[in-house]
Write a structure and sequence with these properties.
Distance between the termini: 35 Å
Structural class: mainly alpha
Helix content: over 70%
Order of helices and strands: HHH
Largest sheet: none
Shape: rod-shaped
Strand content: under 5%
Length: 81
Amino acid sequence: MKAKQSGLTVNQHRQISRHQSRRVTNQTVMEIKDQIIRARAYLGFLPPSSNSHLVKELRLRIREMERAVGEATKDSDLSRR
């Protein structure tokens, strides 16, 4: 019972753990959003006629990550930033 040893009740310990988990999740989502922005910027530097396998793959991964971030931000535990 670490919670008892630290002077916290079990409920307080759970609340702190949930808050820390939420903060880590928020940070991860923000990092992924930043990576998506960088990937889109990279695509912006390419000539419009560029249609290589790398470009197609990057566009596909951007769409996948945007969907994943969208689903994650619908989670009520995440902050609305």
